[in-house]
Specification:
The complex is a heterotrimer. By secondary structure, chain A is mainly beta. Chain A is about 10% helix and about 35% strand. Classes of the chains: A mainly beta, B alpha/beta, C alpha/beta. Strand 1 (about 5) of chain A pairs antiparallel with strand 10 of chain C, so a sheet runs across the interface. Chain A: It comes from Neoroseomonas soli.
Chain lengths: ~90, ~375, ~450
């Protein structure tokens, strides 16, 4: 899944990592936006072998966008702001 | 129209459904009356521990017999109810608790229950995820866990297949005995009669006993249960602690199930809910035993209603007031493992008039003040 | 008097406004950092917040609500980024979680304005990255300036389907197709009733006409077949038209939704009884027109009390607050309540027409293929629920949704059946050959959303 930036796409840049790979994002991005606009493709794997997931509702209801942020623990990517230097693991 | 049969069973928990199965297998006409759905309360919402270790010595003969039935559950009812033999590891968090575990080794030996101590060094080697607070454990390799949501319905289905009449949404509102037969009436006005009645109604079993002139001091018990999101499987044994304020297991799908303390309930509705402060206390105890659980998300909590006796063992055996009435209720939060054997024992009491299992400790009149 | 308001969307803002005007300072709790609800959710700091761009025709309404919201924050006990995960009506206590810290909030009366979420019907491939709800597609655009893909198909039915498609096209995204499962004729039949909606109806027509004028592919009365894809995500959507012909369009993302359903878990935990609303095809908590529930001290307003939309939510929020004040012995002038009641009644008639124009296609839910994932949390396939239902039916016990959950784990995962519950009930009812109301609904259990196990020493 690749989010497409349609407007307000020239905000100040921030960088973070996903499973060690650098991701370029913008200030004001949620983690979900940062990762999926930055080319991550997906956020987690179904525990039961049903493939990758990348969130579904973007409003904190579906519980399908959990990731792990170093120092913060497990968070919903749709409801967490991305920050400079965040180290993220797929959840 | 009155429905007549050989045996009426009131209460469709695991024990009641097992009794229906065993009686039907022996050719008796059985009608089981369940107020809600089978396995709707204590039998269906409990922790799912299939545990012998740590039980009251009087319960061990029943637990041993039940364990044998658990081992061939699939042949008996067509499903294993996800029974898996993971072993049960009971943990000591200080020296006094360790002494408790050591003392129980003798009890286990008397009942041929396999049990071994896991000492201070071994326990952290064998279970590296345990927190430093744990000082020792005792391991019962034959114990395990099962899915409580599946057991009672599976027993009920097997009983139906064997010819028993299992009726859900049948609340019994009136009991009578005419000297030879029992007469039960439901909320919908249906009438049932039989020469034998099994009182297997959990917490509500207290009311049935009272209706026949033998009240017991029973109280509602709502075990406070939680389950987490799935995390990679690493906790193989079913875990308990000395004192019982925490029990915890992980299923291979990854969810961690834990319980401890009591929720709130109103048996008159019936209604029950876990309590927030108890849920947090359980989480606190869990991270002390397994520190890596910190941050794992609890996704659901629940409870139900069981009956608890003052001495924390059930009432099992014949009525002292009414011939043909047999009790098995008040399992005090640990009846799930016993359910299958209780049904077999009740069938023996009804059909053979006797059982090899000693039941003296479970007499219904044990709480009566001695006559002056 | 201790009053708590849960939610800071249109209903919550207008409820708090009336309470503050009456001299109260309610505890005001919202999960988002900045309130607004889903409809008027504001982007995070640093992202363009120009109301005209974000909310279109609704800009004035959104700005007015934000202004009221910001003015009310200092006049209440405002608690953003806070989840209410449990409520105990007997103890009159809410249980909250804020950045991992748990707290209890005592109340004498509480207004629950918990909003709604998309109602979805599983389609083969719906768990793929690149498939979201319609609401999600809108949130991505509104609060992040992003489309869910570069070339998007919108699928489902209801006003939101057309609105989101319009907003995407307007923002410069390529809309590959709008696929409405409702036939044109059904919508046309509802037109007389829709005229009551005035401006709302006109806006709806405008979006549809605008999309047609742009030459965007539109198909109505369709049945979705699959959201296709590969390891990289979505590659296309396939459907069958009313005449039975199959079609396929290439895309890299799909948004789907069939109307909304109340997020009513707190009302459920508060022991408010529920009834099935046949027109909305939703279970809704029982309340009177003013928002009073049969549970003492509990009031409901907004979409969480039954879907009515943002305009209704504002009126209902104010009305519920007045009901609370009346019940607490405050003098409330009928000059305040009567016009609100009148507006709510008029809106209800429009809403009924809207539901007729975009009915929930239960036949699609009932017909989900066996190998399609039904419960995305538990990875449960539709056929597994059907098999369990058949086994149950064979033995004759009463069909029941919670028993199906106990046997199959449907609705037992992290989201607690929010996403799959509606479709699962249809599948179960169809398999048992009964009406969907006959099997009940999934019971709510705390926590309303997942709560983390605190680290040792961090316990509250």
């Amino acid at each position: 899944m690749k989010l497409t930036r349609l407007r307000d796409a020239s905000r100040p840049r921030i960088s973070l990592t996903l499973d060690g790979t650098p991701i370029e994002a913008q200030q004001g991005d949620t983690l979900l936006t940062a990762l999926l606009a930055g080319g991550a493709g997906h956020l987690r794997e179904s525990e039961f072998g049903d493939g990758p997931r990348a969130g579904f509702c973007l409003m904190g209801a579906c519980q399908d966008c959990w990731v792990v942020v170093e120092g913060m623990g497990r968070v919903r990517a749709c409801a967490t702001l991305a920050g400079q230097g965040m180290k993220v693991r797929r959840g | 129209m009155t429905i007549a049969c050989d045996v009426l069973i009131q209460g469709g928990g695991g024990a009641g459904c097992s009794a229906a199965l065993h009686l039907a297998q022996r050719g008796l006409r059985v009608v089981l009356l369940e107020r809600g759905l089978v396995g709707g309360q204590a039998s269906g919402v409990n922790y799912g521990g299939v545990r012998q270790q740590g039980r009251h010595p009087a319960e061990l003969p029943i637990a041993r017999r039940s364990r044998e039935l658990w081992g061939r559950l699939k042949d008996l009812v067509g499903t294993d109810a996800e029974f898996s033999i993971t072993g049960h590891l009971k943990l000591a968090r200080n020296e006094a608790e360790e002494a408790d575990l050591i003392a129980y080794l003798d009890v286990a030996k008397q009942h041929d229950l396999p049990l071994r101590m896991v000492g201070r060094n071994a326990i952290h080697r064998e279970y590296p995820w345990l927190g430093p607070q744990v000082v020792a454990g005792s391991f019962a390799p034959e114990d395990g866990a099962a899915n409580p949501r599946l057991l009672a319905p599976a027993l009920a289905n097997a009983a139906r297949a064997a010819g028993a009449d299992i009726r859900e949404h049948h609340e019994v509102v009136a009991h009578a005995h005419d000297g030879a037969r029992f007469h039960l009436r439901t909320a919908a006005g249906e009438a049932f009669t039989a020469p034998a009645l099994l009182n297997m109604a959990g917490f509500w079993g207290g009311r049935v006993a009272e209706a026949f002139g033998e009240p017991v001091p029973i109280e509602a018990l709502s075990p406070n249960m939680l389950v987490t999101e799935p995390v990679p499987y690493f906790i193989e044994p079913n875990l308990g602690v000395v004192g019982g304020n925490l029990y915890l297991r992980q299923i291979p799908r990854g969810n961690v199930i834990m319980g401890g303390g009591r929720g709130e309930s109103d048996p008159s509705v019936p209604w029950s809910r876990p309590l927030p402060e108890i849920s947090f206390r359980t989480m606190g105890l869990a991270v002390e035993v397994i520190p890596s659980l910190a941050g794992v998300q609890v996704i659901r909590s629940w409870t139900g209603i069981d009956g608890r006796m003052p001495d924390v063992i059930p009432v099992i055996g014949p009525s002292r007031t009414t011939p043909g009435l047999f009790h098995a209720f008040g399992f005090s939060g640990h009846g799930f493992q016993l359910g299958p054997a209780i049904g077999a024992i009740m069938a023996e009491l009804v059909v053979d008039g006797r059982t090899d299992i000693p039941l003296e400790a479970f007499r219904v009149d044990r709480f009566k003040a001695p006559a002056a | 008097m201790k009053v708590a308001v849960v939610g800071a969307g249109p209903a919550g803002v207008r409820a708090v406004e009336r309470l503050v005007a009456a001299g109260l300072s309610p505890v005001w709790i919202d999960e988002a950092p900045d309130g607004g609800g889903r409809i008027y959710q504001r982007p995070p700091p640093g992202v363009n917040r120009d109301a005209r761009t974000l909310y279109g025709f609704e800009a004035r309404r959104a700005t007015a609500l934000h202004t009221a919201l910001d003015a009310l924050k200092p006049r209440s006990d405002w608690r953003p980024e806070t989840l209410v995960w449990h409520i105990r009506p007997e103890a009159r206590q809410l249980h909250t979680l804020h950045r991992g810290r748990q707290a209890g909030v005592d109340y004498d009366a509480a207004i629950l304005c918990t909003g709604a979420m998309d109602r979805v019907i599983p389609v083969p491939g719906w768990t793929r990255p690149g498939v979201t709800t319609l609401g999600a597609a809108q949130i991505a655009l509104k609060t992040q300036g992003c489309g869910i893909g570069g070339r998007v198909v919108f699928l489902g039915t209801g006003p939101l389907l057309w609105l989101v498609a319009y907003q995407y096209a307007k923002a410069g995204a390529e809309v590959a197709a709008v696929l409405d499962t409702t036939p044109f004729a059904t919508k046309a039949r509802a037109t007389p009733g829709l005229l009551r909606g005035g401006a709302t109806f006109v806006k709806g027509l405008y979006y549809i006409a605008w999309l047609r004028r742009r030459g965007i592919r539109i198909a109505e009365g369709i049945a979705p077949l699959a959201i296709e894809g590969d390891a990289g995500g979505v590659t296309g959507v396939a459907w069958r038209d009313a005449s039975g012909r199959e079609h396929r369009v290439a895309c890299d993302a799909a948004g789907m939704g069939w109307g909304l359903k109340p997020e009513a878990q707190l009302a459920d935990l508060a022991r408010v009884p529920f009834r099935h609303d046949p027109l909305q095809a939703n279970w809704v908590p029982e309340r009177d027109a003013a928002g009073r529930t049969p549970v003492r001290g509990i009031y409901l307003a907004g979409d969480g009390a039954g879907i009515g939309g943002a305009e209704v939510a504002e009126i209902a929020g104010a009305r519920a607050a007045l009901a609370l004040l009346e019940d607490a012995g405050h003098r409330v002038d009928p000059i305040e309540t009567v016009p609100l009641d009148r507006k709510l009644a008029a809106q209800a008639r429009f809403r009924a027409a809207l539901e007729r124009a975009f009915p929930f296609p239960s036949h699609l839910a009932r017909g989900i293929a066996d190998d399609t994932i039904l419960c995305r949390c538990e990875g449960l396939r539709t056929g597994e629920l059907r098999a369990a239902a058949r086994a149950e039916a064979a033995t004759g016990p009463a069909p029941e949704m919670n028993r199906a959950k106990a046997f199959t784990r449907v609705g037992m995962g992290r989201c607690q059946g929010r996403v799959c519950g509606v479709a699962a009930a249809e599948v179960l009812a169809a398999e048992l050959g009964c009406d969907v109301t006959a099997i009940g609904r999934l019971r709510g259990q705390p926590p309303v959303k997942p709560i983390p196990i605190p680290a040792a020493g961090d316990a509250p």
